[in-house]
Amino acid sequence: MEVTAYIFKSICSQLVRMSSELVPFLYNDYVSKGRKVVPSTLKEILTQLLAHFEDVHLILDGIDELPQGEHRTLIKTICAVTDSSPSCKTLIVSQDIPSIATSLSKKQRMCISEEEACIRHDMDMVVDGSLREINNMHEGFIEEPVLQDLKGKILEKAKGQMIHGI
After folding, report:
1. Which residues of 108-128 are buried (b: 16+ CB within 10 A; e: fewer)?
2. Each residue of 117-127: pLDDT tens digit?
3. Whether the predicted model's global pTM rises above the 0.70 cut
């Protein structure tokens, strides 16, 4: 079974766990009729399950870790299903790679690498506040130059991690 089918199967399973009254519907319309679990059937089931909910937030993370040939199929199929369901809002999180970017080119997007200055500022504030809190717990024992040196080292290590994750 292809990766897209596994993902759809997982989403369907999660929706059924959220609303157990959907079990008879699935049994009557699919299980009792012996319908095979193939991608087209899963797409149909997912569309019908989503119609039973007033507000669904679907988050797909790490699709960049899937085989490159699966990106387009997954994105095309998930967009077709969720676009037909006004109750479903979808967030796709991935690295900015061509096979995904192309498939999502007409969708709204936010690229973290374009927000680096804001992220750097936020990280600076968090690290500074945390170090000052630690220093206050030790009654101001750590001198300001040492605090600034620690802050610089922490931010430098975080920069490497942040860029690695983008």
Report:
1. eeeeeeeeeeeeeeebeeebe
2. 888 888 899 99
3. no
